[in-house]
């Protein structure tokens, strides 16, 4: 289920996300294209961290930029 990213600090480029078993899909503000990050390409550790950040509503955009920017499927 697609959920709006709460963006606690109001400084994120992330608009919404959807969590699956082995991946997370992210939608960025001003871009309707979904970006899916999977265990296969981004790695389980990164995907699990992104899931936690998405649910917390803080730090997801920065994490993507710092660790997995081009590792989407």
Write the layout of secondary structure elements.
Blueprint: E1 3-4, E2 14-20, E3 23-28, E4 34-38, H1 44-56, H2 60-68
Antiparallel strand pairs: 1-2, 2-3, 3-4
Helix/strand class: alpha+beta
Give the number of helices: 2
Strand order of the largest sheet: 1-2-3-4
Element pattern in H and E: EEEEHH
- Uncertain stretches: none
Mean pLDDT: 97
Alpha carbon gap, first and last residue:
19 Å
Describe the structure using short key phrases.
single chain, 73 residues, alpha+beta, four-stranded antiparallel sheet, 30% helix, globular
Give your account of this protein's structure.
There is one protein chain. This protein is of the alpha+beta class. Helix content is about 30%, strand content about 25%. The chain is built from two helices and four strands; from the N terminus they run ββββαα. A four-stranded antiparallel β-sheet has the order 1-2-3-4, covered by helices on one side. β2 (about 15-20) and β3 form a beta hairpin. α1 (about 45-55) runs antiparallel to α2. It is globular, with a radius of gyration of 11 Å. The two termini are about 20 Å apart.
Give a brief description.
Helix content is 30%, strand content 27%.
